[in-house]
Design brief:
The structure holds 2 protein chains of 2 kinds. Chain A is mainly α. Chain A contains 17 helices and no strands. By secondary structure, chain B is mainly α. In chain B, helix 4 crosses helix 14, helix 6 crosses helix 7 and helix 8 crosses helix 14. Classes of the chains: A mainly alpha, B mainly alpha. Chains A and B meet through helix 2, helix 5, helix 9, helix 10 and helix 12 of A and helix 1, helix 2, helix 10, helix 11 and helix 13 of B.
């Protein structure tokens, strides 16, 4: 479990780092600045230890590089980077599907994750709908649609502070964070088709498109992966499969995450080693794609009045939703205190950011910009809140 | 059978997706789909051709050509354009890999011989091609009635472009076949040296044409060429040195940083009017020679992961081949291609004799000198845009020539690498490589 928990979103070292041999001591220690180490939380994020969650660094970096600042990531460049976003989402979907299938018998944790996710979505959706209608924030489309989109992006959790080496509570929290993605991905996929439906009639087939795309690519992968001897060729096919999942979904504007989830479930559930092969080969892509996703979201951030107005309720009610969700899930997790679970679930990770970028393509430009801006800034703030309010276990616990 | 079934599924999915109502802006989101189809289908096409004894590279090229916009149009123009966007990154990575292959300490004893060899080959090509073009000018479809001075300048320009090689294709074939050895090293060195000379000769030829025909730009010959050559090498060396320092001091998120380095080498180099191939080559060379232990491990890891980049590069190259140009000017292009090949053979044979080369270099080096691709096309476009009065026929002739050499060159090189027994030797331990005969 530990291995695929680490590889699901951000944790775990980059494979190339492992081959080259990471220097024994972090640079900060070798520079004689070790007294600053305790100031950083010990969070197993993005292969940095000690370090901080990548969103805190990469989203602001994206903004600075983006069209509203240095314009290195210009609008034209960002349009071409969208392919990386859909690939990143498909890859994350595969890892979610893999983790889900491996742990499918842990019903209590699956239910806990989905209860927590549903409550967070409900709280955020209602709070933002209320804020938008009461304050008459100009969002360009129906307020409920914006509130639902932001609710989906807010419901994601990464729990990358929960290193499963710590204790049973950390392991359970990490699994809840994995499983809460299931409802979020399904809700997001339906919402995407629904958004398309607001502009005109859409074929009912689109609701099932992620299933078809994920299913066909999974079968093609099963036929190819295990019968290719060379590592380099397996890597190529893995990238091709991820590109087909992300590319076909992006073309139809359906959810890449959902298509990846279906493929991940099938590769893991069906006989063979396709899931292991893909996870190993695709891990080389994971960090660059996730970095690209966060940089892109940061670049699209626009500090417009509407986005800033919605930011505070987004962060606040996301926190409230996670707390309520954690309390509601308590009977299913007797070994865990609700405060601990909420603390683990506050870091939002990257799936919500990815969804915001997908919604942006489907919505009118001004609405899409609000969704991405609120989600990107909300993600950074939530990560900072998690660092400040819910510090990860101390070094001794990790060593133990 | 499994592979054919998988290919059928992938193509069926693409057909199904294409048949559904795509929302507005779908053409802009086609890149991922193009990438997916390209990687899987082209790989399978390459594997299929390999069964018939043809190199995989030919499969990738033919897949791009047959499925590209000029024939079946499965990879349509927007898809092909999107694939070209990856090419900048691909070219930088391919050249970076080539730089990682160049170990100065190992190459030093043979440097004088390689320089002599390159000098003879290029001298033969330039002198003979110029003479042929001068004599045959009235029958060539480029300004046949030009006065003698203009005719000489244009023949010089045509010579410079026709005599060019493709370092990118050479490096890509070497990387794809995982070749290493004396023939590989010599071929790479000659092609790279020729690229440096090409920049100088093209700049001189353009200056000459401007002088006699009156062009639109006024850029000093020396300044322009030295900025491109010295600037590219210096820029690449600085990036390589910084990357080596990063590997030693930090050593984390190397994949991410490597992607950033290749992007920088590609995008920034173009913005600064440097040659990305030279810059990336210099960066790889610095990493290999400044941080050897990291360089070797990095080289193996990058080479293992480079296959998708190479496939995209060759498919994009195949899809961009303007095969329709052959219809109008194919015979002339075919004659020039044959002459060029014969001169490369003669030059390599003479150069080998004068520089003491032995087989496989002496009898097969010419096969590494046939490919032409992006650099040649880029130079053609520069000339055609600056001199519109004869630019169109010049461009059509060169595009036809590139199409022929692009199709034939990689096959010849792969064949030569196979006959030299160097395919797959990149994976052999360094000691094995060191045991290769020195010439």
């Amino acid at each position: 479990m530990r291995r695929h928990l680490q590889s699901r979103e951000l944790g775990g070292a980059d494979p190339l780092d492992a081959q080259l041999g990471i220097p024994a001591q972090p640079l900060i220690v070798r520079l004689g600045l070790e007294r600053f180490v305790p100031l950083l939380q010990r969070r197993a994020a993005f292969g940095l230890r000690p370090g901080i969650a990548p969103a805190i660094v990469l989203v602001p970096a994206g903004y600075l590089l983006g069209p509203n600042a240095a314009n290195i990531l210009s609008i034209d460049v960002l349009a071409h980077l969208q392919v990386g976003v859909s690939l990143a989402l498909a890859l994350l979907g595969i890892f979610v599907g893999r983790a889900l299938t491996k742990e499918i018998r842990r019903f209590r944790l699956i239910i806990a994750g989905n209860v927590e996710c549903a409550l967070t979505m409900a709280v955020v959706a209602f709070a933002l709908w209320f804020t938008i209608t009461r304050s008459q924030v100009p969002v360009g489309v129906a307020p409920m649609l914006v509130a639902l989109c932001l609710a989906v992006t807010a419901a994601a959790s990464a729990a990358h502070g929960a290193d499963p080496r710590h204790d049973e509570r950390a392991r359970a929290a990490a699994r809840v964070a994995d499983f809460d993605d299931l409802l979020l991905i399904v809700a997001g996929a339906i919402l995407l088709v629904f958004i398309r439906g607001t502009y005109g009639p859409v074929s009912w087939v689109l609701y099932f498109a992620p299933l078809v795309i994920g299913g066909v690519v999974a079968i093609a992968g099963l036929l190819l992966f295990e019968h290719t001897a060379l590592e380099s060729e397996r890597g190529l096919l893995a990238l091709g499969a991820v590109a087909m999942l992300g590319g076909a979904s992006a073309y139809l504007m359906t959810s890449s995450l959902a298509a990846g989830l279906v493929a991940g479930v099938l590769w893991t559930a069906l006989p063979g080693r396709a899931d292991e092969i893909l996870a190993r080969d695709a891990q080389n892509l994971q960090h660059p794609l996730v970095a690209l996703l966060l940089l892109t979201a940061g670049a699209f951030f626009v500090p417009a009045a509407a986005a800033l107005w919605l930011l505070a309720p987004y962060v606040l009610f996301r926190l409230v939703g996670k707390m309520i969700g954690a309390y509601a899930a308590r009977p299913l997790l007797p070994s865990m205190r609700p405060g601990d679970l909420a603390g683990y679930l506050v870091p939002p990770g990257v799936i919500g950011v990815g969804f915001s970028l997908t919604f942006m393509l489907a919505l009118p430009p001004e609405t899409g910009q609000i969704i991405v801006s609120v989600t990107a800034a909300g993600t950074v703030l939530s990560e900072v809140i998690a660092l400040l309010l819910f510090p990860a276990p101390p070094a001794e616990a990790e060593a133990a | 059978m499994r592979r054919i079934a998988a290919l059928g599924l992938i193509l069926a999915l693409a057909w199904w997706v294409g048949g559904l109502d795509a929302p507005e802006g779908a053409p802009l989101r086609i890149t991922g789909l193009a990438l997916g189809i390209t990687l899987i289908a082209a790989y399978l096409a390459g594997a299929l051709l390999e069964r018939f004894g043809l190199p995989k590279v030919t499969g990738y090229l033919l897949f791009g050509l047959v499925c590209g916009p000029y024939l079946l149009n499965i990879i349509n123009r927007p898809m092909a354009r999107e694939l070209q966007l990856f090419n900048g990154l691909a070219v930088a990575l391919i050249a970076f890999i080539a730089g990682l292959e160049i170990n100065v300490a190992r190459l030093r004893p043979r440097l004088a011989a390689i320089t002599r060899l390159s000098g003879v080959i290029l001298g033969t090509l330039y002198v003979a091609l110029f003479a042929i073009f001068w004599i045959a000018w009235p029958w060539l479809p480029i300004a046949p009635d030009a006065p003698p001075a203009v005719r000489a300048a244009l023949a010089f320009l045509l010579t410079a472009v026709v005599a060019s090689f493709s370092p990118t294709v050479t490096i890509a074939v070497v990387a794809e076949s995982r070749s290493a050895g004396i023939f590989t090293e010599t071929s790479l060195a000659v092609v790279i040296l020729a690229d440096l000379v090409l920049i100088l000769m093209f700049t001189a030829a353009m200056e000459a044409v401007r002088f006699v025909a009156g062009g639109t730009q006024e850029v000093g010959l020396l300044a322009s060429a030295s900025w491109e050559i010295v600037g590219s090498l210096a820029f690449g060396a600085i990036i390589g040195a910084l990357f080596s320092m990063y590997l030693r001091a930090v050593g984390r998120e190397v994949t991410l940083v490597l992607v950033g380095v290749c992007t920088l080498l590609s995008v920034a180099a173009r913005a600064l009017h440097f040659e990305p191939v030279l810059a990336a080559l210099a960066a790889g060379l610095v990493v290999e020679n400044v941080a050897p232990p990291h360089g070797d491990t990095l080289k193996q890891a990058v080479e293992r992961g480079a296959l998708p980049v190479l496939v995209i590069f060759f498919v994009a190259a195949g899809a961009s081949l303007q095969i329709d140009a052959l219809e109008t000017i194919g015979i002339v292009a075919l004659i020039i291609a044959a002459l060029r090949g014969a001169l490369a053979y003669a030059g390599a044979a003479m150069g080998s004799r004068l520089s003491g080369q032995t087989p496989p270099v002496s009898n097969m080096l010419w096969m590494a000198l046939v490919s032409q691709a992006g650099v040649t096309l880029g130079l053609t476009l520069i000339a055609a845009q600056e001199f519109p009065e004869w630019g169109a026929p010049f461009q059509t002739l060169m595009v036809s020539l590139i199409a022929i050499n692009q199709l034939v060159g990689p096959v010849l090189l792969r064949n030569a690498l196979g006959r030299a027994g160097e395919i797959g030797r990149m994976d052999a331990p360094p000691a094995d490589e060191g045991a290769a005969p020195q010439h």
